[in-house]
Amino acid sequence: MSNLTITSAQGFRAGTATCGIKQSGKTDVGILVADSPCTAAAVFTSNRFCGAPIVVGREHVRRGRLRAIVVNSGCSNVATGERGVADARAMCAHLAAAIGARPTEVLPSSTGVIGEFLPMAKVRVGIDAAAAVLSASVRAGRAFAEAIMTTDTRVKLAGERFRIGRTTVTVAGCCKGSGMIAPNMATMLGYLTTDAGLAPAQLRRLLKAAVEPTFNRVTVDECESTSDTVAMLASGLACAVTGGTAEARFAAGLRAVCESLAYQIAADGEGATRVLEVAVRGARNPRDAHAAARAIAVSPLVKTAVHGGDPNWGRIVQALGQTRVTYRPEDVVVRLGGTILFRKGAPAPDLDRRAVAKLMKAKHVAIEVDLGAGRAADRVLTCDLSREYVTINADYHT
Amino acid sequence: MSNLTITSAQGFRAGTATCGIKQSGKTDVGILVADSPCTAAAVFTSNRFCGAPIVVGREHVRRGRLRAIVVNSGCSNVATGERGVADARAMCAHLAAAIGARPTEVLPSSTGVIGEFLPMAKVRVGIDAAAAVLSASVRAGRAFAEAIMTTDTRVKLAGERFRIGRTTVTVAGCCKGSGMIAPNMATMLGYLTTDAGLAPAQLRRLLKAAVEPTFNRVTVDECESTSDTVAMLASGLACAVTGGTAEARFAAGLRAVCESLAYQIAADGEGATRVLEVAVRGARNPRDAHAAARAIAVSPLVKTAVHGGDPNWGRIVQALGQTRVTYRPEDVVVRLGGTILFRKGAPAPDLDRRAVAKLMKAKHVAIEVDLGAGRAADRVLTCDLSREYVTINADYHT
């Protein structure tokens, strides 16, 4: 776990509060406030029933400038019609008034149960309380990451420090997400800060490029949330990112942060006991590579086999067979942790079931599929499917 | 449960045996033998890694004539390469020799673990033993239905008797299937018999038409099996199905049998405690209707909410939002057991959560979605997702 948090980059403070949206009594309001207006970019869910905060957030981030982010957990403000949109706007206005910004400089997020209205009186109290304790400490950044959690069991933080020229630049982030996770656009709530300086279009492009191979390659249950948001603020207090070398260094740092956060989501998938990485190569094109990896990663039969440490590898082949990607079955090679399970249309002759079972029981289970049909590759991260996933989701609401 | 079995139609006998493929010691070989060659048709899985029996079965049913069906459970003979195909042929040849038929008049099926070779010595002993006890009794038909079971907890039988002119015609069937069930082509093993007489092309057409709205609309885990087969034999001993009225009557009887069997599969889905029926109407076209119904029916979040009797209906909207079908969110109406949950983009104003929770806990949970975009409709049957599903599939192999 990183010691860096969203307050580690210069120019950011965070505050949190408990206002009673969550029945558990845990913190449920988090705000991130920049000392001055920042360059901003965000990617959002492509779910058609997106939440009211997404509608408002898209509007507010359009110009590429933001001062603050306000998040509540415990209620997602999704499927709440016009009243929901008004509530999301009210959240922004309330925080804006408290910090002396314009409402359109605030990006709102909500996460939790779908189909209930926000208790706005509580939310207002929470925002005021959080604004009263704004701090640039690591502890405040960590508290923000805790305040956005729902079914997450662990706080998810990542950060990178690197040099651009002679200046040290920080990129840090946190995220929440453990169920309703699917690799389509952003797949959770994630917030990133940096003290590097970027132009709006540049930040948008780099954020999108970092999200695609990381957050968009994580699936827990292939359910695409109605609230997914990854937002990034760049204060520019350290140095500007200009020129190819500086941009490449920044892009690498940003990708590493997203990569770490994405892995933490897979590892903390609802009920997860192990991470499953499905890597596909030899595909005819990138679309095929992604489709094949995803088909295996979403299969409940593969995921339960991995949960049970069951060497029932035939299910990998079954899941692949369900896709319409290009390959000849006899060319396909399936490996588990480097060991060949299947090739030439049949089990590997010297297959040792006990060794396979052992590989299935690792903390990180690596399935590799070579389609033998080309040069494209991709990979998807997921986790096992356990009884605990069902317990969490059968009893979530009540 | 029907009192009719696959031996209820005139001209069919069944036999079963225990040959030790299943470790449980339950029956694992079933044969269905017609007194004389029958008109035959079958639909198979579209999974690209289909089992060896599918390869051989497609060949044998091509001419539309069969004498017998041989099935083993406990090992699916899938992902077994050329040796697997040779084994499937050997099963046919062995039964053919025992009953005085040609090997190509026998359709083979295998169901169970993927990626293991059939223990052919045991299989041969099993076929001989089953052939020695062939009987047209209801008990023999029922025993056949038991012999094809894997994780099924209940035997699945259905039958219809109706008149065509002055003659009584019987259509009866049995099936197995409770996991690895997805609505794409046939979705399980199903065997149907009738004493009506039909031409091969006619039977093929009517079988396909009956399978589409029934077996192809059941999903348990959206995993399309590598072994799926629905095969039908028509002895013609009762009367010929000629003319529109007779054919319509036959088609209705056949559909009713498939409908009943499909429902039994959903009700016996692995770990299922209730059936979930998702009906969509108001879709712009049939493809949209199917896609929307399927998206909701496969959602693990909807299925776990139904399992927990949790009125977390927002997940229905979330699942719908993930699709790319045509509708305006504000036109969508969602009902549960007739009660409106959601319309005009927001929860129904007078929504009683306790009443919703009660509807979620019914044995048959009916979700209805009106997309308000056209006149097409469809529906998909599934079941809840329980801890038991995970238990069954995490520990299946060992």
Descriptive account of the structure:
2 copies of one chain form a homodimer. The first copy, chain A, is of the alpha+beta class. Chain A folds into 2 domains: 12-267, 4-Layer Sandwich (L-amino peptidase D-ALA esterase/amidase), CATH 3.60.70.12; 275-394, Roll (Ubiquitin-like (UB roll)). Helices cover 33% and strands 29% of the residues of chain A. Chain A contains 11 helices and 14 strands. In chain A, the strands form 2 sheets. In chain A, strands 1, 2, 3, 4, 5, 6, 7 and 8 form an 8-stranded mixed sheet that branches. In chain A, a hairpin with a 2-residue loop joins strand 10 (333-336) and strand 11 (339-343). The first copy, chain A, is globular, with a radius of gyration of 22 Å. Residues 183-187 of chain A have low confidence and may be disordered. At the A-B interface, helix 2, helix 8, helix 9, strand 12 and helix 11 of A face helix 2, helix 8, helix 9, strand 12 and helix 11 of B.
Oligomer classification: homodimer
Classification by helices and strands of chain A: alpha+beta
Largest interface: A-B, 66 and 66 residues
Q: Write down the secondary-structure element order of chain A.
A: EEHEHEHHEEEHEHEHHHEEEHEEH
The radius of gyration over CA of chain A amounts to 22 Å
What is the helix tally of chain A? 11
User: Judging from the principal axes of the Cα atoms, what is the shape of chain A?
Assistant: globular
Low-confidence stretches of chain A: 183-187
Describe the sheet with the most strands of chain A. Answer: 8 strands, mixed
CATH architecture of the largest domain in chain A: 4-Layer Sandwich
Q: How many independent structural domains of chain A?
A: 2
- On the 0 to 100 scale, the average pLDDT of chain A is 90
End-to-end separation of chain A in angstroms reads 32 Å
Can you tell me the CATH topology of the largest domain in chain A?
L-amino peptidase D-ALA esterase/amidase
What is the CATH homologous superfamily assignment of the largest domain in chain A? L-amino peptidase D-ALA esterase/amidase
Number of strands of chain A: 14
How much of the sequence of chain A is in beta strands?
A: 25-35%
